Amino acid sequence: MRDGFDDVDEAIMDAALERIVQVGIRRASLEDIARRAGISRVTVHRRFAGKDNLVEAVLARETRRMLAEVTGIAATASGVDAQIEETMLHVLVQTRIHRLITELLRVAPDEVLGFYTVQGERLVAIGIDYIVGMLTQAQAAGLVARYDPRPVAELVARLAHSLMLTPGGGNVDFADPDKARAFVRTAIVPLMKHGIATPSEEVKDDHFAESAYSTPRSAP
């Protein structure tokens, strides 16, 4: 599925989004979507090659819109710690309260699990690519440590996707803004600033700790 869309594509996706949040994915037919967009069903099918591709395009577009908001938030926060905190908090919160998610849960809760597990691969991939790009820019500017950003990006993207599917059940109540912020500040910010320690780094750290805290031997 291509990522560049013209005005007709956008009108089709707008119509699809509105119909999905009204009746759910299964009941949102191409005929209804075409009627809302003011075009023929043939045009919808020609441009998106079926309903599954259209739904995927809508979801990808909404994800990119959210990430564009994240970029704007990062530009207004002062300091790298605040930038990471505000942007990641926005991502974790929005994956829970986005209109598409909340309305789909309301009108067709039986569809949600299948929808986000089937479409989840593309969502996670978009999130990973975005976070990798953000971290790479921060590394180039000397704002965070030099490390392979992809494992960190995958952890964070998968965390966001997990919260979308299962918002409760853990020790952190992400519906509580203060608790969600505290989690991001203490867990996500250090992770994104310093990366994941490699085994060799852990050995060096252990050696340093042993040297620092061991009792010096008495001279013979």
UniProtKB/TrEMBL annotation:
Residues 6-66 form the HTH tetR-type domain. It comes from Nocardia aurea. SUPFAM superfamilies: Homeodomain-like. It comes from the Bacteria. Residues 29-48 bind DNA. Coiled coil: none annotated. The keyword DNA-binding applies. Keywords: DNA-binding. Transmembrane segments: none annotated. InterPro entries: Homeodomain-like_sf, HTH-type_TetR-like_transc_reg, HTH_TetR. This is Helix-turn-helix domain-containing protein.
